[in-house]
Automatic annotation (TrEMBL):
PANTHER family: PUROMYCIN-SENSITIVE AMINOPEPTIDASE. It catalyses: Release of an N-terminal amino acid, Xaa-|-Yaa- from a peptide, amide or arylamide. Xaa is preferably Ala, but may be most amino acids including Pro (slow action). When a terminal hydrophobic residue is followed by a prolyl residue, the two may be released as an intact Xaa-Pro dipeptide. This is Aminopeptidase N. Its EC number is 3.4.11.2. Residues 25-193 form the Aminopeptidase N-like N-terminal domain. Residues 451-553 form the Peptidase M1 alanyl aminopeptidase Ig-like fold domain. Residues 558-881 form the Peptidase M1 alanyl aminopeptidase C-terminal domain.
C-alpha cells in the first residue's frame, strides 16, 4: 500500500514522455502467490527529446527478478530501483532498444484489487487508473499507446480458460499439467486497458453481425451454473452494439468481444479492450433474484462499457485530468441508449434525481472539483459523479446548444480526427466549434469552474404591451481553490403556457438569444423580453433539465399545478410536482424541529393524487411523481443546521397526510397495476410494478399496520415486489413479528446467492432510527458478512452511511465514530473502497452544531491515524479543510 503523504500532480506540469513505446510482449507464468511476469518492451527516443534523458518506468509493490537490455544483463550502475520506479540510463540516442523486465507478484495477497488479483479462484486484473504498475515496471500513463502480445502459462486443470485483450492467436500444452494461450491486440492501447483473466468459468455464447457484415463472437463468462443468469446481459450487449452503429455510426473492431463477471470488484465494471471485466452484480439477473432496477443497471452498464470501445479506447485520454473526456461522454451515450430503449422522460427524471442526490452535494461541499480538474493527489478519488454525471450533462448541453444534427457532425469529426490518439477536452470541444462555427470558449467554463450555478428568475407581464419580461441572474458559488467565478453560458430550455394550458409562441424575443425553445443565458444578469404574449404566461424554465443548475423561481402553487397538468415536457411536469412538494417538506422539517403541527398544502396533495390517478400518464412516470424527494434531498435543500430526525419526522407526517387523502386512489392502483402472466423485465411492466409498489408504500402509511406488506411479501413472484414489501416491513414496522419473520424467510431462501444476500444486508442497514448503529454492528458478526468483499461492504456500511440519515446521524455521534473505525480497518486492505465510503461525510458542515462537532471529531480521529493510504488521507484532509 502506498502510504506517502501524496505528491500533488498538476495539469500544468504535463509533458510527453521522452521515449516512444513501440511494442509490448508480456508472458505470465501464473501462480497464486508467485506469478512471474516477463515484459519485453521496445522503445525509441522521441524526436527532439533530451538525448541524455533516462527511461523512468513506474512500479508499485513489485519484486524485480531480472532486467535485460537488448537481451543482455544490465550493469548495476545503469539502473536504479525505488519503491515507485525503475530508472535506466545510458540509452541510445535514436536507435530502438529492448528492455526485458521480469517481476514476481503475489495475486493472492492483493487485497486492494488493483493489478493482478484472485477472486473466487479466478485470476483477474484491474489496471485503471494506475494498476498496471503493480504488474510490471512500465510507463503507466494513458498517453503511451502500443500493440500488445500476451502469453499466459498456467496450470491446465485449475485454469482451463486463459484470456487477454484482442484476438486469440493460439494455445497448446506446456509441459506437465500446464498449457498456454497467446493473444494479440492490434489496436494500440494504454496500459490501463490491459486485462488478463484465467480460471474455470462457464460461458454464454452468441454472435453479432456488424454493419459491414463481419461476424463477431460474443462471450460472457460467469461462474459455472450461473449461465442462465447472463442471458439479459447478452441481450443488452447486442442491443448496445446495434445502437452504437445506428446512432453514432460506430462499428466493433475485433473478432471477439468478451465479458467476465467476478464477485470481488471495486467499481461497476471496466472497459478493457475486447475483454470487459464486470462486477457480477451488473451481469447476473433473473426474475427471482433481480429487481427491475437491477435489470436497468445491467443494461446501462453493459452499454457503457461497450460504448467505451470508441469513446475511451479508440480515442483515449492524454492524461488523467482528461478523465471526463471518456467518462462524461460515455455516460451521455449510455443515458441516450437507455432513453431510446425505455421511456425518455422517465429516464431523464431518474438521471436528474441521481445527479441532484449525488453530484450536487459533491459540488456544494469540500470535495467539489471541476469536471476537468487541474490537480490531484490520488487519481482514484476522481472517479466521481462530477466527472461522470456532470461531465455527461456538459456533453448534453453541447448537444442542446448546437442541435442534434450539428452535434452529430461534431461527433463524427471527433471520431475521424482523433481515432488512435490520446487527447484532451480542448481537442474534443474544438471539434464542435469546427462543426458549428460557434465559439465555445465561454461554454467551456463548465469544464473548469466547479460548483452548481444558481439561477434566480423573476417575471413581469405587461398586459398593455403584451410582453413578458424574464429577469435572470446567475451566481456560481465559491468552491475549494476557486473563490470567484466568471458567468457561464447556460442553455435554458423554456416555454410559456396560457391559463388554459395551451402553449404561447412569442412573436419575438429581445435581450437574449432564443432559438429552438432554448434561451441562452450568458451574462451575470440578463432580461429577456418576449413580445406578442396575449395573456399572462406561466413559464416553464429548464425543461428536461437542460442545464445542471439550481433554479430559484418563485411560482405560485396554482402555476406549478398548471405545469404539472399541461406541460408537454413530462420531465418538467415531474419538476413542477417536485417544486410543489419541496416547500411542504422543508416546512415540515422545520416544524418538526420546533415541535409544531405539520400541515400539508391542499393544492399539492390534490395535484399529486390527480397525477397518480391520471391514466394518460405512463405508470413509471406516476411512480416517479409519487416518490417524494428523499430525506437527503430535503437536507440538501435546507442547506444548514440539519437535524436528520426532524427531516425524517416531517417527511413521515407528509407521507401520512398524502396517504390518508389518496387512500382510495392508492387502493385502486394497487389492484389495477398487477402484472399478470410471465415475468418480463421490460420498461412497461417495470413501470406497472413501480406504481403498484408506490401505492403499497402509501397504503402502509394510511393503514398503519404491516398486514398488506406482509401479504405482498407472501404473494410476490419476483424480486422487485418481494424486496419492496420486505423494505416496508423492515423500515416501517421494524419491531413487528411480520418484519422479523420476513427477514428470516428471505435470508434462508436466498443465503446461497451473494447478490441477494447483499440486498438483505442493505435493507437492514437502511432501517431508520437510533438502533441502526447497533443493528449494523450485529450484522457484521453474521456469518454471511464478508469484510473482504466490496459489494458486501457497500451494502452494509455503504447503505448505512449514505442511505440512512437518522441512523448514521444519530445525535450522540456514534454513527460517525463507527464509520471512522471501519474506514481505518478497511484502509489496511482496500484503500480505494475506504476512501469512497468516507465521502459519506462530505456534508458534515451542514449538520446542526452538536452533530457537526461529533462528525469533525470522527474525521480528526481518522486524520490522526498512522499509515493512512494516500486515498483516505486525501479525502479526509479535503473534507476537513
Ligand atoms: N472506467 C470504468 C470505471 C473504473 C475505474 C476504475 C476502476 O478501478 C478499480 C474500475 C473501473 C468505467 O467507467 O466503467
Ligand atoms: Zn466509464
Amino acid at each position: 500500500m502506498r502510504t506517502d503523504t501524496g505528491q500533488v500532480v498538476n495539469l500544468a506540469d504535463y509533458r510527453p514522455t521522452d521515449f516512444v513505446l513501440e511494442r509490448v510482449d508480456l508472458t505470465f507464468e501464473l501462480d497464486p502467490t508467485e506469478t512471474k511476469v516477463e515484459a519485453r518492451l521496445i522503445f525509441h527516443r522521441r524526436k527532439g527529446a533530451d538525448p541524455s534523458a533516462p527511461l523512468v518506468l513506474d512500479g508499485d509493490e513489485l519484486n524485480l527478478s531480472s532486467l535485460l537490455f537488448d537481451q543482455n544483463e544490465l550493469a548495476p550502475e545503469r539502473y536504479m530501483v525505488t519503491a515507485e520506479s525503475l530508472t535506466i540510463r545510458g540509452l541510445p540516442e535514436t536507435a530502438p532498444f529492448e528492455v526485458t523486465v521480469t517481476t514476481i507478484i503475489n495475486p493472492e495477497a492483493n487485497t486492494q484489487l488493483m493489478g493482478l488479483y484472485r477472486t473466487s479462484g479466478i485470476y483477474c486484473t484491474q489496471c485503471e487508473a494506475e494498476g498496471f504498475r503493480r504488474i510490471t515496471y512500465f510507463p503507466d500513463r494513458p498517453d503511451v499507446l502500443a500493440p500488445y502480445t500476451v502469453n499466459i502459462i498456467a496450470d491446465k486443470e485449475a485454469n482451463p480458460l486463459l484470456l487477454s485483450n484482442g484476438n486469440f492467436l493460439g494455445g497448446a500444452g506446456y509441459g506437465p499439467g500446464k498449457h498456454f494461450a497467446a493473444w494479440f491486440d492490434p489496436h494500440p492501447k494504454p496500459s490501463y486497458l490491459f486485462a488478463l483473466v484465467a480460471g474455470d468459468l462457464g460461458v454464454v455464447e452468441d454472435t453479432f453481425t456488424t454493419m459491414s457484415g463481419r461476424e463477431v463472437v460474443l462471450k460472457i463468462y460467469v461462474e459455472h451454473g450461473k449461465e442462465p443468469r447472463a442471458a439479459y446481459a447478452m441481450d443488452a450487449l447486442k442491443r448496445s452494439m446495434k445502437w452504437d452503429e445506428d446512432v453514432f455510426g460506430r462499428e466493433y473492431d475485433l473478432d471477439i468481444f468478451m465479458i467476465v463477471a467476478v464477485s470481488d470488484f471495486n467499481m461497476g465494471a471496466m472497459e478493457n479492450k475486447g475483454l470487459n471485466i464486470f462486477n457480477d452484480k451488473y451481469v447476473l439477473a433473473d426474475p427471482e433474484t433481480a429487481t427491475d432496477a437491477d435489470y436497468a443497471n445491467i443494461e446501462a452498464i453493459i452499454a457503457h462499457e461497450y460504448f467505451h470501445n470508441w469513446t475511451g479506447n479508440r480515442i483515449t485520454c492524454r492524461d488523467w485530468f482528461q478523465l471526463c473526456l471518456k467518462e462524461g461522454l460515455t455516460v451521455y451515450r449510455d443515458h441516450e441508449f437507455s432513453s431510446d430503449q425505455r421511456s425518455r422522460p422517465v429516464k431523464r427524471i431518474a438521471e436528474v434525481r441521481h445527479l441532484k442526490s449525488e453530484q450536487f452535494p459533491e459540488d456544494g461541499g469540500p470535495l467539489a472539483h471541476p469536471v476537468r480538474p487541474t490537480k490531484y493527489r490520488e487519481i482514484n478519488n476522481f472517479y466521481t459523479t462530477t466527472v461522470y454525471e456532470k461531465g455527461s450533462e456538459v456533453t448534453r448541453m453541447i448537444a442542446t446548444l448546437l442541435g442534434r444534427e450539428t452535434f452529430k457532425k461534431g461527433m463524427d469529426l471527433y471520431f475521424d480526427r482523433h481515432d488512435g490518439q490520446a487527447v484532451t477536452i480542448e481537442d474534443f470541444v474544438k471539434c464542435f466549434e469546427d462543426a458549428s462555427g460557434r465559439d465555445l470558449a465561454q461554454f467551456s467554463l463548465w469544464y473548469h469552474q466547479a460548483g452548481t450555478p444558481l439561477v434566480t428568475a423573476s417575471g413581469t407581464y405587461d398586459a398593455g404591451a403584451k410582453s413578458f419580461s424574464l429577469s435572470l441572474e446567475q451566481m456560481i458559488p465559491a468552491t475549494p481553490g476557486q473563490p470567484t467565478k466568471e458567468p457561464m453560458h447556460i442553455p435554458l430550455s423554456l416555454a410559456l403556457f396560457a391559463e388554459d394550458g395551451s402553449k404561447i409562441e412569442p412573436a419575438t424575443v429581445d435581450g437574449a438569444e432564443f432559438a429552438g425553445e432554448v434561451l441562452h443565458l450568458t451574462a451575470r444578469t440578463q432580461t429577456a423580453v418576449f413580445h406578442g404574449v396575449a395573456s399572462r404566461p406561466v413559464v416553464s424554465i429548464n425543461r428536461s433539465f437542460s442545464a445542471p443548475i439550481n433554479l430559484h423561481f418563485d411560482q405560485s402553487p396554482a402555476d406549478l399545478a398548471l405545469l404539472a397538468r399541461y406541460e408537454t415536457d413530462h420531465f418538467a411536469r415531474w419538476q413542477a410536482l417536485t417544486d410543489l412538494a419541496l416547500p411542504n417538506l422543508l416546512k415540515a422539517a422545520r416544524d418538526a424541529r420546533e415541535g409544531a403541527a405539520i400541515v400539508c398544502e391542499q393544492t399539492f396533495v390534490d395535484t399529486l393524487i390527480a397525477a397518480a390517478a391520471d391514466e394518460s400518464l405512463e405508470p413509471a412516470f406516476r411512480a416517479q411523481a409519487l416518490a417524494l424527494p428523499s430525506e437527503s434531498d430535503i437536507a440538501r435543500e435546507l442547506g444548514s443546521n440539519i437535524d436528520p430526525d426532524a427531516v425524517h419526522a416531517g417527511r413521515q407526517a407528509i407521507m401520512r397526510q398524502i396517504a390518508e387523502a389518496g387512500k382510495a386512489t392508492f387502493a385502486a392502483l394497487y389492484d389495477a397495476m398487477i402484472t399478470s402472466g410471465e415475468f418480463s423485465p421490460d420498461a412497461k411492466s417495470a413501470g406497472r410494478r413501480a406504481l403498484r409498489n408506490a401505492a403499497l408504500t402509501y397504503l402502509s402509511y394510511a393503514e398503519g399496520n404491516p398486514s398488506r406488506a406482509k401479504a405482498a411479501f407472501d404473494g410476490a413472484n419476483n424480486m422487485t415486489d418481494l424486496s419492496h414489501a420486505l423494505t416496508i416491513l423492515a423500515h416501517r414496522f421494524p419491531d413487528s413479528a411480520e418484519a422479523k419473520a420476513a427477514l428470516e424467510a428471505f435470508r434462508s431462501r436466498f443465503q446461497e446467492n451473494a447478490l441477494v444476500v447483499d440486498k438483505w444486508f442493505a435493507i437492514q442497514a437502511g432501517v431508520p432510527g437510533q438502533g441502526a448503529v447497533d443493528r449494523v454492528k450485529a450484522l457484521m458478526e453474521n456469518p454471511l458478512f464478508k469484510r473482504t468483499n466490496p459489494n458486501r461492504m457497500r451494502s452494509l456500511v455503504g447503505t448505512f452511511a449514505f442511505g440512512n440519515p437518522t441512523g448514521f446521524g444519530r445525535a450522540d455521534g456514534e454513527g460517525y465514530r463507527f464509520l471512522a473505525s471501519q474506514i481505518l480497518d478497511i484502509d489496511q486492505r482496500n484503500p480505494q473502497l475506504a476512501a469512497r465510503l468516507l465521502t459519506s461525510m462530505r456534508s458534515w458542515r451542514s449538520l446542526e452544531s452538536a452533530r457537526a462537532d461529533h462528525a469533525r471529531s470522527a474525521l480528526l480521529e481518522i486524520e490522526r491515524a498512522a499509515n493512512l493510504s494516500t486515498d483516505v488521507r486525501d479525502i479526509v484532509e479535503r473534507t476537513l479543510k
